[in-house]
Specification:
Elements lengths: L6 H77 L3 H27 L4 H29 L3 H94 L3 E5 L5 E4 L1 H7 L3 H4 L4 H4 L1 E4 L7 H9 L4 E10 L5 E12 L5 E10 L1 H15 L9 H18 L3 E8 L2 H8 L1 H16 L7 E6 L2 E6 L4 H17 L1 E4 L2 E4 L2 E8 L6 H17 L5 E4 L4 H4 L4 H13 L3 E7 L1 E2 L16 E9 L5 E2 L1 H10 L3 H23 L2 E6 L1 H5 L1 H14 L6 E6 H6 L1 H14 L2 E7 L5 H5 L6 E4 L1 H4 L6 H16 L3 E4 L5 H10 L3 E2 L8 E2 L6
Parallel strand pairs: 12-13, 16-18, 18-19, 19-20, 20-21, 21-22, 22-23
Antiparallel strand pairs: 1-2, 1-6, 3-4, 4-5, 5-6, 7-9, 7-12, 8-9, 10-11, 14-16, 14-24, 15-23, 16-17
Length: 794
């Protein structure tokens, strides 16, 4: 590989200069250390010498002062003894006199023990001689005092003792002055030593400064040459960077921008001057396509940590004015000749057009052209991914299979253009009802699919029903025609037990078929224990299973509370307080002991005329329970009657007989009949209600509002309660039309003296709206979830 001219000499120059500078600074460092060591040593010696001088001087001075004090005190003691007449006081002064003599001798001994000069020793010896002479005279004074000759003692004290003592004090003062002279000489010696050390340090400092100046001159000269070489190399590099078609940004070790080439300035919208010193993330405002995360800070820090980022990385770069382009980028650290990271370089190019074309092709391969939704191929690919996570991570997902119920009628009536527009509008409606993490797809024709990621089966059923409600509430207008819509939905779980994507799709299709075959516009959830339904084994099998369940007593009653929203007074003719109100609900225990919901077998029972037998079991079991528990507690029990039972001539007699045999007060029973069943059997329903109401029973009209002529028939049916259709109640908080429907039904019911019950109350927001509206009762999962009713054998 060839090297650019001048680059190798510049490198060698830098390389050798580094060692020369290092050696020079090492010499300066040695000189400074020597200077410091010598200075510190000399200063320590001076300090130590001064401390010795001061300590010796202080000790000698203290000892001489002590001797002077002891000598003076002895004279004072003698004088006191001479003038005292009390023997005890004289003895006390005598003891002090002798103690002072002892102090004097101890101080003298300590002075002798110290290192004294010849002059000091001679002077101290004279002090001793004088003190001895004075001691003899003082002894004579003591003897005279002891003998009681005070006058003679005073005369001797004044004539001889005190002059002797003064001679001792004078000689001690002379000794003190000698010591002071010795201290001054020691200080002078220390001062001379200090000046000597100062001159040495000054010389070494001057040598260090001189060497430093020499090194600085060398560095300046070498740096000028290096700078010139680097300037030329930088010019060549900048010309190269200005010429290439890629954008280039470089940063320093702190991630601050220090260079942008013209292409980078154009793409980012930042001039080189404005970007200088800015954080990379501020200038390079990019979002990674793969993760959607801002990558400026992470990219800069990662590269500065020594991690290179290869090319073929894609992101959206937002310019300073907010416009965005798709880019392909790569980044790498910039290293010096020692391998240390000294910055980073980022290279990128505008790939907007090529990426747009690629994205269009990718989108077309995975989306439905008509609705813009995911197509079947992409749907099954994502389904395979969810199945993989279910197997490896044991996660639970769900798939919904939707089939429109009235699509063929729109196509046949208004043509395919209307059908296409209906599909587009329904796709938009459904998209608003699914989560961002879910996948909505058009599988073909009028079929749609939904993948619910991380969703349990029960929650999937709720979501499916909300989609069904959304489609049901959607009105499609084409020219002068208005179409109502319905959808049948199959729900299948995706678990670690699922076999394959094909089996899951087959099960979902089968569940959708069952929902459609059960009456359309409903949701069917496929469970492992109802494989008969998903495998389409036919309605006759359900007939056999229902009959067997009746024979083996495997039907069960659940109950759900119907809660009053306001205090309600008990009717005068009622034996039961109306506040305690609940509805009994039917369930089945299948052959394996699992619970089967009513909508799994009720449609088959209705089609094969088995509802009267089921209704008889429900009535008999509920009345037995009330006879044992409910009636004593004074509760009102709502029992559902099918349309077939209303048309059964023997059912009325059966109910009357059961009421009489059980002993349950008829006022405690409220029969619920659907609006459609009552209208279909209006004459018989009217007679049925008249007989039972005459006994005291009450009636509730269920699913009110779902029919086409509800208000017109209402005045012919003497019911006590109106149960407002749950499809209106569920969305009344968000949907003004549903809110108006509920309000209208409630108002009409109250005008006619009928109490109103709202079904499908799923949250507090709905509850508060109903209470504000004046609805009398509320029922739903937001208030009370169904619970098992104690089963009574019959």
């Amino acid at each position: 590989m060839q090297t650019e001219p001048g680059s190798q000499p510049a490198f060698m120059l830098i390389h050798h200069s580094k060692y020369l500078i290092a050696i020079g600074f090492a010499l300066v460092l040695v000189l400074m250390i020597s200077l410091t060591a010598i200075g510190l040593t000399r200063m320590a010696a001076i300090h130590q010498r001064m401390e010795i001088i001061v300590n010796e001087q202080n000790v000698k001075t203290d000892l001489v002062a002590l001797m002077r004090h002891a000598a003076r005190e002895r004279t004072i003691n003698l004088h006191r003894m001479a003038v005292m007449t009390d023997a005890f006081e004289q003895d006390d002064e005598l003891q002090k006199f002798r103690a002072m003599a002892s102090e004097f001798m101890k101080a003298r001994a300590k002075l002798l023990a110290m290192g004294l000069s010849t002059t000091e020793a001679a002077t101290l010896e004279k002090v001793g001689a004088l003190a001895l002479e004075g001691t003899r005279v003082q002894a004579e004074v003591v003897d005279l005092v002891t003998a009681g000759k005070a006058a003679q003692a005073n005369q001797l004290l004044l004539a001889k003792a005190m002059p002797a003592q003064n001679r001792v004090l004078a000689k001690l003062s002379e000794l003190l002055e000698i010591q002071r002279d010795a201290g001054r000489k020691a200080v002078d010696e220390a001062t001379r030593t200090y000046h000597y050390a100062y001159l040495i340090m000054l010389s070494l400092g001057a040598a260090a400064v001189g060497l430093g100046i020499l090194i600085a001159w060398f560095v300046i000269r070498r740096s000028a040459r290096i700078e010139s070489d680097l300037f030329h190399e930088k010019e060549r590099a900048e010309v190269t960077l200005h010429s290439i078609g890629d954008a280039v940004i470089t940063t320093d070790t702190l991630g601050m921008v220090d260079y942008l080439n013209p292409v980078a300035q154009q793409l980012t919208g930042w001039s080189a001057a404005d970007a200088q010193g800015m954080l990379l993330a501020r200038v390079f405002d990019a979002v990674a396509e793969a993760t959607g995360e801002s990558m400026g800070d992470a990219l800069g820090q990662g590269v500065l940590d020594g991690q290179a980022v290869g090319t073929k990385q894609y992101a959206t770069l937002y310019a300073r004015d907010g416009s965005g382009v798709s880019i392909e980028y790569g980044a790498a650290p910039i290293r010096d000749f020692n391998g240390e990271v000294i910055g980073s370089v980022l290279v990128f190019r505008d790939v907007t057009r090529s990426r747009e074309l690629a994205l269009q092709l990718t989108w077309a391969a995975s989306h439905d052209a008509l609705t813009g939704l995911i197509n079947r191929r992409e749907f099954e690919r994502r389904l395979a991914q969810l199945l993989e996570t279910a197997r490896i991570e044991h996660k639970h997902h769900a798939v919904l299979y939707l089939d429109l119920d009235q699509f063929k009628m729109v196509n046949d009536t208004c043509g395919h253009m209307a059908g296409d527009e209906l599909l587009r509008q329904l796709a938009t409606t459904l998209e608003k009802r699914v989560r961002e993490s879910d996948t909505l797809a058009r599988l073909g024709g009028d079929e749609f699919g939904v993948l619910l990621e991380g969703c349990a089966l029960d929650r999937a059923a709720i979501i499916a029903d909300s989609l069904r409600t959304a489609v049901t509430g959607f009105r499609f207008v084409w020219q002068d025609k208005v179409f109502e819509n319905g959808v049948s939905i199959g729900v299948v779980a995706i678990t670690d037990h699922s076999e394959s994507t094909a089996s899951i799709m087959s099960a979902a299709d089968s569940a959708c078929y069952v929902a459609k075959d059960q009456g359309r516009n409903r949701v069917h959830v496929s469970h492992p224990d109802d494989s008969e339904l998903s495998l389409r084994q036919g309605e006759m099998q359900w007939v056999q299973r229902i009959s067997k369940a009746l024979e083996e007593d495997r039907l069960r009653l659940y109950y759900q509370s119907i809660t009053p929203l306001f205090p309600v007074a008990c009717p005068a003719d009622s034996a039961c307080p109306s506040e305690e109100h609940y509805e009994v609900l039917l369930r089945m225990i299948d052959e394996s002991g699992k619970l089967v919901p009513p909508m799994a077998f009720i449609p088959a029972a209705e089609r094969y005329n088995m509802m009267p037998a089921i209704d008889r079991w429900v009535i008999r079991t509920a009345l037995d329970h009330l006879a044992t528990n409910g009636a004593a507690a004074g509760s009102t029990c709502s029992i559902n009657l099918s349309g077939q039972s209303l048309g059964d001539e023997q059912m009325l007699d059966y109910i009357v007989g059961q009421l009489e045999d059980s002993g349950v007060a008829p006022q405690c029973i409220c029969f619920e009949i659907t609006e459609t069943a009552a209208i279909a059997n209006l004459t018989r329903a009217t007679r049925f209600m008249q007989v039972l109401k005459g006994m005291g029973c009450r009636f509730s009209l269920d699913d009110f509002g779902s029919g086409m002529s509800s208000f017109g028939y209402l005045k012919h049916l003497r019911v006590d309660y109106l149960k407002i259709d749950g499809s209106f109640v569920r969305d009344m908080v968000e949907d003004q039309v549903d809110h108006a429907m509920v309000e209208a039904i409630n108002r009409i019911g109250h005008v006619m003296g009928i109490r109103t019950i709202a079904e499908f109350v799923e949250n507090d927001a709905i509850l508060e709206k109903l209470r504000a509206m004046g609805v009398d009762y509320a029922q739903g999962y937001g208030i009370h979830k169904p619970e098992p009713l104690t089963h009574t054998e019959t």
